[in-house]
Amino acid sequence: MKARTFTLPFLLMIFISSHFSLSTSKRILNDPYGFSSSASLSSLNAKMLISSFNLTPKYDVNVIPKGSPDAPRLVESQIDFPTTFGVQNVSGGPSVQQFGHYAGYYSLPHSKSAKMFYFFFESRNSSTDPVVIWLSGGPGCSSSVAMFYENGPFKISDDFSLSWNDFGWDKVSNLIYVDQPVGTGFSYTSDKSDLRHDEAGVSNDLYDFLQTFFKEHPKFAKNDFYITGESYAGHYIPALASRVHSGNKKKEGIPINLKGFAIGNGLTNPEIQYAAYGDYALQMKMITESDYEGIKQDYVECQSLIKKCNLDGGLACKSAFEVCDIILNMILAVKPGTNYYDVRKKCVGQLCYDFSKMETFLNKENVRKALGVGDIEFVSCSSTVYDAMTKDWMINLEVKIPDLVNDGMNLLIYAGEYDFICNWLGNSRWVDQMNWSGQKDFKSAKNVRFLVDGKEAGLLKNYGPLTFLKVHDAGHMVPMDQPKASLQMLMYWMQGKLSSTPRVGP
């Protein structure tokens, strides 16, 4: 093992593990441009993220040698999941003959050698149901995390067979999961210049993929289309929705029947959301009043750098990432072991969730063969992709949304109430403050009870195309924590019925 210099990220970890008070952060904030390596800090964060999910990807990113004979060809194939992977029909799920399950690669035209991997599951109900694409965050985590642990058709059993998910979103939609940005999951390239660093690159790749997808599946091209996802997808989703809307207006290719987009516990407007960390932490008794006052002072520098990032880009964006991330970690240092995805829970060491079965399953030789990925290893979460997106982190993507909702696109922002990292409070604030034609009416709208089986499962606010839903008894991953509620949420939202429940409050 190579000797390592004790850089700021290493010292930061000492601060955290030693339970230093939040006032410590002021010493670090005095010189926001003095950080020696933003890549080191982002790498540390990425590795902590991967460890927290109990994932151990063999490689940091899927960049393969040029001309590798083992590289899979451009291919899409129908997969008989029950026969191939021993699906247990414990809940009376349908047979595979009733609809299609697909896995495939699409070659990205605006790249040197990148290929994007995806899963596609036809609706268990009807092929005329909406087409829904799901994007996971990280940045750099495979959407297979959501597919197997949140809202996909199947769950992985202890013996690595699959069982039907009674609340999979494919029960009401034709569902696509994409491994992106390039280098994530089974997506790969042979040229590192194909790795993406901003939302322009990410959204163009996804738009190109969708154009090819609907060309290959013309019977779905006229279906209603929705973009969904969580966490860092709070960046991806507005960027992709804007790209699709622009492409439709300019008649660039196949018209995509975009009806709306939904962001779950997302990072969308960092300036507002980072300001909410202290307030949320105080409300949840994660910190003291004294800690809170220190955070408010430290946030001044964080906010200044976020503003500068969105004006100038470049170095300011790196510095904003570093400074604001320190504030976040200092909050978590007050109560070590707190699961920042669900503050009701504790992490054991770095382990907060165990998603290792997915990683083991997808790296099995027979699974890789059935999926057509050849010898490509599954990179569950890529620290390299995470590093590459560091400059993008503090960019405000909310600015792309007003034009979309003003043009009638439906927007759902939902958040589990116990998530810290992309908490409901910060999300509700940027939604309230968003400058669009219905802003005043949305802010004055009354709370509405979201009922599941006659019981309150959340509180929502709606005006016109905009809906905000705070989900009870859920953390960062709402479809995992409240699967039935999340399925009903999606179905009601797509049907325009999400706000049709009794009002509460004055």
Automatic annotation (TrEMBL):
Residues 1-25 form the signal peptide. It comes from the Eukaryota. InterPro entries: AB_hydrolase_fold, Peptidase_S10, Ser_caboxypep_his_AS, Ser_caboxypep_ser_AS. Its EC number is 3.4.16.-. It is an enzyme of class 3 (hydrolase). PROSITE patterns: CARBOXYPEPT_SER_HIS, CARBOXYPEPT_SER_SER. It is found in: Secreted. Keywords: Carboxypeptidase, Glycoprotein, Hydrolase, Protease, Secreted, Signal. Transmembrane segments: none annotated. Belongs to the peptidase S10 family. PANTHER family: SERINE CARBOXYPEPTIDASE-LIKE 47, SERINE PROTEASE FAMILY S10 SERINE CARBOXYPEPTIDASE. This is Carboxypeptidase. The lineage of its organism: Eukaryota, Viridiplantae, Streptophyta, Embryophyta, Tracheophyta.
